[in-house]
Amino acid sequence: MSSLCVSMMMLLLVAPAGAAATNAGTPAGTTAPAAAASDKAERTTRAAKFFEGGRYVEAALEFEALRRDYPGDPSFLFNAAASRDAAGHFAHAVAYVREYLARTDIGPDDRKQGEEQLEESARKVTAVTVTVTLPLEGPQTVAVVARPVTRSAADLRPELTFPRTTPRQPLKLELDPGAWIVRVEGVGYQPAEQQVTVASTPLAISLRPELVPVVHTPPPQVRAVPPEVVKTTSRGLYISGGAVAAAGLGFIAGGVGMIHGQRVKTCDDPTLADCRRRFANGFVVRNIGSTLLGAGAGLAASGLVWRANDPRQRMIAWSALAAVGGVGLILGEVLVVRGTIPFSRENTDPQGTLAGWSDHWGEHRHSALPALATTLRGLGVGLVAGSVAGLIVQRKHLGPGGARAIRVDPSAGPGHTGIVLSGRF
Where do the TM regions start and end (predicted)? Predict the structure, then answer.
């Protein structure tokens, strides 16, 4: 051994007689350096001073911390064992020395001193045989942990962990006389423990840890709109759409009858006031019918979305239909205004003059653009109304997570016309 170890041994020889003074093993290589050149040297010096002053628990804690921080230096492990032995913590001394002797980086002299320390400490511990019974269906890798039950706050001792390397074979622990809590723990197991009182007679205990209960989390319930609600709502949209469309066809027929009726076609009013009024009213009735026809078609189309089983797919489809409906509503309004300007200028202006009623009637009696524009406008109204109704019904039954409300707002300005679609998707 080096001169450092000899110096520490001399300190032990002048210590008071007792278990620590008769200890065969001593901290190796702990002479304080001439100057504190590093943290490692300072901490080693401090631990050595604790040992020299008989503060063995504090010395052991310092050496254990150095062992964790510098695992490549085996002297810290041996010195921790010597300090624990001097403090009367023989189980820790035995465990540390056995680990020390299992290393391959210690010389012959150090190994001999370690064997002497083990022989000295092993005489002061008692064998506690622990039989661990594990369920066959569980993992077979566990560890046995021994924790001393201390009576003083100054008696600081860490837990000792003993891996169970041989399945189905009892594990032999070497513990100090006194109270201990022996615990079995491992992944997938609930810890099982037992308190024992160790004396001079060997003990045998049995521990049977149980598997952690497997909590079967039920799969999240997929929320869905009740089938009867789907059936009732979709049927309502079909019926209302059909009824509105039928009413629209009736208005169209009535409007077309007024436009092509003899009272308008062969009007003989010299002032043409009655002719103009009847002619204009016919178009109003026809356009109302076209709007209703488009609205009925839009309602029925939105009802088809209920055929999808996935609420999210329905939400996306209604959102798209609402967007299309908003565009159709705005575009239809623009075309209605543009398409009726020529007719309104000639037919409704009280100051306007007509070259001949027959020519005027023949030129405007069809007026297809207003009819198409009002149909498009009605289709937009039906799509928006049906889609919003579907979103509202679905949201009512699924909550905010089932369908996100959307909002369709018109947007018009100089040089542009469109819609703004907002909401959470």
Answer: 237-259, 279-304, 316-337
**Residue 62 and residue 83: Cα distance in Å, rounded?**
10
Task: Tell me the pLDDT tens digit for each residue of 395-424.
Answer: 888 875 444 445 555 555 555 555 565 555
| Secondary structure class of 399 (helix, strand, coil) | coil
**In a 3-state reduction of DSSP, which class is residue 337?**
helix
How many Å is the maximal CA-CA distance in the chain?
Answer: 144
**CB neighbour burial string for 195-204, b if at least 16 within 10 angstroms, e if fewer:** ebebeeeebe
Model confidence band, residue 148 (pLDDT cutoffs 50, 70, 90): very high
Distances (CA, A) of 293 to 234, 244, 249, 250, 379: 18, 7, 6, 9, 8
User: H helices within 348-408, ranges in order?
Assistant: 357-364, 368-398
Residue 413 backbone phi and psi in degrees, to 5: -170, -175
End-to-end CA distance of the chain: 77
Q: Are 411 and 418 in contact (CB under 8 A)?
A: yes
Does residue 329 contact residue 384 with C-beta atoms inside 8 Å? yes
- CA-based nearest residue to 89, from 175, 27, 154, 15: 175
pLDDT in tens, 64-95: 999 999 999 999 999 999 999 999 999 999 99
| Residue 397 pLDDT | 80
